[in-house]
Amino acid sequence: xxxxxxxxxxxxxxxxxxxxxxxxxxxxxxxxxxxxxxxxxxxxxxxxxxxxxxxxxxxxxxxxxxxxxxxxxxxxxxxxxxxxxxxxxxxxxxxxxxxxxxxxxxxxxxxxxxxxxxxxxxxxxxxxxxxxxxxxxxxxxxxxxxxxxxxxxxxxxxxxxxxxxxxxxxxxxxxxxxxxxxxxxxxxxxxxxxxxxxxxxxxxxxxxxxxxxxxxxxxxxxxxxxxxxxxxxxxxxxxxxxxxxxxxxxxxxxxxxxxxxxxxxxxxxxxxxxxxxxxxxxxxxxxxxxxxxxxxxxxxxxxxxxxxxxxxxxxxxxxxxxxxxxxxxxxxxxxxxxxxxxxxxxxxxxxxxxxxxxxxxxxxxxxxxxxxxxxxxxxxxxxxx
Length: 385
Description:
The protein has one domain (29-165, 179-379). Helix content is 42%, strand content 23%. It contains 13 helices and 16 strands. The chain has helices at 17-21, 44-49, 53-73, 93-114, 125-130, 155-163, 213-228, 231-234, 248-259, 264-283, 285-296, 315-330, 367-379; strands spanning 12-13, 28-29, 35-41, 80-82, 86-91, 118-124, 136-141, 147-152, 184-185, 199-207, 298-299, 301-304, 307-313, 334-341, 344-352, 356-363. The strands form 3 sheets. Strands 1, 2, 7, 8, 10, 12, 13 and 14 form an 8-stranded mixed sheet that branches. Strand 7 and strand 8 form a beta hairpin.
């Protein structure tokens, strides 16, 4: 039986994510003939230290955009999980080969254009299931049209660890063809928190007992809601702080990521569009609606067998959250990593400005990467007794 439309045909839940976690009947096993595909910028911490945070974010987002454009051409959806310096995707057998070829080209482009080493790899779900690991997935509308996948189980983290290991050999053969990154945009300035008294927090968290993963995640999300408010309130992206950065350098970075070469026509046209974009957003109904959707459809919550989220709030709120998380950590329930940033960076996928766009957000300076480093360090330590 063809499983290509498995994810496309899943029902979209409209209940809060914490409530979704409490009802595993809403989750479905990913077909074993699907592939888990992982991309990751090697030595991303060094790249961030060199000031390449926007480029790392853009290359990671490009991994998703390349796959989504392939899936869109055949009218299906594929689940994706943004990680700041990489991404995880799930693909049916009918698309996996094409996606991997595109990502191989994306890897070559990242190396040639930005001197970034993008790791690309895949593992069949059948191999994951042979390890007696789980991977169940659901779809949920978390913010008025922003539909995200939610994954439970250890499967994705197992594959990520495998592909990121030093002895993993990914596809190395050069692939001829055209890399389609249509819709990739990188035109926003660093986004300050909504209020001057706020900061941006990147959190990454995993449950210690996979059997209680759903219940633990549900409790953590309830606690975040109680301290920071719902997604719409704690969103680090806000209308007053959205400012286009209409510089040649910004458009040139986007051009190199998208085309892999210099194109004077692209540079001039898109620089001009960005310059007049402020007028479009300020004086047209369509522009105002697009800006509202940019805020609504910013991808600030990722659940892929762990929780990764970016939010804005006060120092007091962060202290309350850390106290709560440390209590859970001391009781052996979770491990977490957290990074505080002064602003957010955002890369965009805009198929059209009316109702088909999504915005990938990370903390300035690699918030997710730094939080992941802290989490990894804790996971290497002996369990708390």
